[in-house]
């Protein structure tokens, strides 16, 4: 029986960003340097495949520091942590390595700068996301007000005349964030923004890549985890540009009925999804269809981040 033809447009850039690559490498180097086990507070990045691979190598993932025994190293996830976490680690004399993405750390430093200048901070982000929890935890409670939608701006109870600033989560939709910023600037014309936008380069590049070919596609497959903010945003961007999108973690999640009738589909991957999962999905599609593949390159990424110096320090006794 002959296969139906299917043209696949594959986004470039896609998948791992520099912050994710750095965080994974931190855990791997810690395992090589200190041996098994290395504890990791929360998922190092939002991808079960990555987490399970690191577990096989000897990483143990926990929710809180009280699950970490004495005398073993602990790594903090790429999303960032409240200041109370390293304080608690130091109180317990735990050796820790902070794998927070440097672009998330940039937002933390912005928040501290605004706070020192006496500004109340409004953060655009998603409640409950680890990055948001970490950012809110950089300053005393009440210093930052979180908003998730333009309607939240309308109901803010913040002094219109007081000094204000805004910051954002790094993995948001570019369009949604612009709408939020516009609403804030309309209500608070004097509000200060970041010197350089907070949405990270990888989030921006992956969204721009989807925009570049979404209108050519009947369906868009986004490879990523359901708790990955940047992956979910890629689905939203695709649908905003007229192409139905679906998030899949790997090939076993492919909905063949949903793909039925499509002649051109797009494939991309969130910033915490490894390339091996992209290849797995493409192989599954090749098994079911007569496939031709076209890569759509929209930008070049050459960003790298150094590993933290603390990774090479001796474990405290």
Question: Helix- and strand-based class?
Answer: alpha/beta
Please, how many domains?
3
CA-based shape: flat
Helix content: 25-40%
Structure notes:
There is one protein chain. With 317 residues, the protein is of the alpha/beta class. The chain has three domains: 5-16 and 201-297, 4-hydroxy-3-methylbut-2-enyl diphosphate reductase, catalytic domain (Cobalt-precorrin-4 Transmethylase, domain 1, 3-Layer(aba) Sandwich), CATH 3.40.1010.20; 18-101, Rossmann fold, CATH 3.40.50.11270; 103-187, 4-hydroxy-3-methylbut-2-enyl diphosphate reductase, catalytic domain (Cobalt-precorrin-4 Transmethylase, domain 1). 38% of the residues lie in helices and 19% in strands. It contains eleven helices and twelve strands. A five-stranded parallel beta sheet has the order 10-9-11-1-12, sandwiched between helices. A four-stranded parallel beta sheet has the order 3-2-4-5. The mean pLDDT is 96.
List keywords for this structure.
Rossmann fold; 5-stranded parallel sheet; Cobalt-precorrin-4 Transmethylase, domain 1; 12 strands; alpha/beta; flat; 317 residues; 3 domains
Task: Please provide a brief summary of the model.
The chain is α/β, with parallel strands linked by helices and 317 residues long. It has eleven helices and twelve strands. The chain starts with a strand and ends in a 20-residue tail after the last strand.
């Amino acid at each position: 029986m002959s296969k139906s033809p299917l043209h696949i447009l594959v986004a470039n850039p896609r998948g791992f960003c520099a912050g994710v690559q750095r965080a994974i490498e931190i855990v791997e180097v810690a395992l090589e340097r200190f041996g098994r086990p290395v504890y990791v507070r929360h998922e190092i990045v939002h991808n079960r495949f990555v987490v399970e691979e690191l577990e096989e190598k000897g990483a143990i993932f926990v929710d809180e520091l009280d699950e970490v025994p004495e005398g073993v190293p602990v790594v903090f996830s790429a999303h960032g942590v409240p200041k109370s976490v390293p304080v608690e680690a130091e109180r317990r004399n735990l050796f820790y390595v902070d794998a927070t993405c440097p672009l998330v750390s940039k937002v933390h430093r912005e928040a501290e700068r605004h706070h020192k200048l006496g500004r109340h901070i409004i953060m655009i982000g998603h409640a409950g996301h680890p990055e948001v929890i970490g950012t809110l935890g950089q300053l005393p409670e009440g210093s930052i007000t979180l908003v998730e939608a333009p309607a939240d701006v309308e109901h803010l109870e913040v002094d219109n005349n007081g000094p204000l600033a805004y910051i954002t989560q790094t993995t948001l939709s570019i369009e949604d964030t612009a709408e939020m910023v516009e609403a804030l600037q309309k209500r608070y014309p004097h509000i200060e923004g970041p010197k350089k936008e907070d949405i990270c380069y990888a989030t921006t590049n992956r969204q721009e890549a989807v925009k570049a070919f979404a209108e050519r596609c009947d369906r868009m497959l986004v490879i990523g985890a359901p708790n990955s903010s940047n992956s979910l945003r890629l689905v939203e961007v695709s649908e905003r540009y007229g192409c139905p999108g679906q998030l899949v973690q790997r090939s076993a999640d492919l909905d063949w009925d949903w793909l039925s009738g499509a002649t051109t589909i797009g494939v991309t991957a969130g910033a915490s999804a490894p390339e091996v999962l992209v290849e797995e999905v493409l192989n599954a599609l090749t098994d079911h269809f007569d496939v031709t593949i076209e890569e759509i390159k929209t930008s070049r990424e050459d960003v790298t981040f150094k590993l933290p110096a603390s990774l090479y320090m001796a474990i405290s006794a």
